[in-house]
Amino acid sequence: MTYTPFYLLGETRPSRWLITCDHATNTVPPQINGGDLGLPREDMERHIAYDVGAYDLAQHLGQLLDGPVIASNFSRLVIDPNRGEDDPTLLMKLYDGSIIPANRNADAAERARRLDLCYRPYHDELARMAALPHAVILSIHSFTRQLRGRPPRPWEVGVLYADDDRLARPLIELLAEDGLCVGDNAPYSGHLPGDSIDKHAIGPGRPNVLIELRNDLIADHAGQRAWAERLAPILGHALEKSGL
User: Which of 56, 80, 96, 201 has the fewest C-beta atoms under 10 angstroms from its C-beta?
Assistant: First the structure.
């Protein structure tokens, strides 16, 4: 079976929303160390390898918002599509206490090979879809409730943005009105130079917002569907309020 580095669902759906999921799967392509990074299964199932629940949530939102969904099909530990090509964390050798054996000796040539195999095809396709007229980019991620040795994070959902907060601001207000504990540029702040939103939204001036859901809330199908049904009307209302 031929390896494909991305999924594209509902390409012809008519709404303005383009739903992206950078850390959708924990797939290790067969071309990378025989499809095994050398980590135990429990590590490949946690947040260091992918955004737990995010892809299914993105798929449900794509259906409810009637917009296309594009998602990566490689683990962030293979190469991180939400980093610039010159970012030192593009190819991680240690993450949240776990050493990644197949990455320990990865050199510049291996990094370039993974860029060509996974990263660049995904971003080329994302660029093609983002260029659709009037596209509004909705990037879906999830975060772990607690990093090793750190205090628990209090938020249920985070909204991330850079200088352009035209969509983020009404979305934060509406989520809070819905009774949620909302992170305003938390659990992370803004965006990194060269990341997906920077490449495909900030640079070209496209409307955008990034949502982080706490991954224990969307760990199963019931949670993923429930959160999609909760978020979809709020997102629609936020876009209307933004005037974009």
Answer: 96
What is the token pair recorded at 175? Answer: 């989520």
Domain ranges in the chain are 6-242
Please determine, for residue 182, whether its predicted confidence score (pLDDT) is greater than 90. Answer: yes
Residues in the chain, overall count = 244
CATH 3.40.630.40 is the classification of domain 6-242: yes
For residue 147, pLDDT beyond 70: no
Q: Which residues pair with 212 in a beta bridge?
A: 141, 158
Q: What is the DSSP string of the chain?
A: ----SEEEE-TT--SSEEEEETT------TTTGGG--S--HHHHTSTTTS-TTHHHHHHHHHHHHT--EEEE-S-TTT--TTS-TT-TTSS-SEETTEE-GGGTT--HHHHHHHIIIIIHHHHHHHHHHHTSTT-EEEEEEEE-S--TTSPPP--SEEEE-SS--TTHHHHHHHHHHTT--EEET-SS-S--TTSHHIIIIITTT--EEEEEEEGGGGSSHHHHHHHHHHHHHHHHHHHHHHT-
To the question of pTM greater than 0.70 for the whole model, the response is yes
pLDDT for residue 188: 85
Q: pLDDT tens digits for 69-100?
A: 999 999 999 999 999 999 999 999 988 878 99
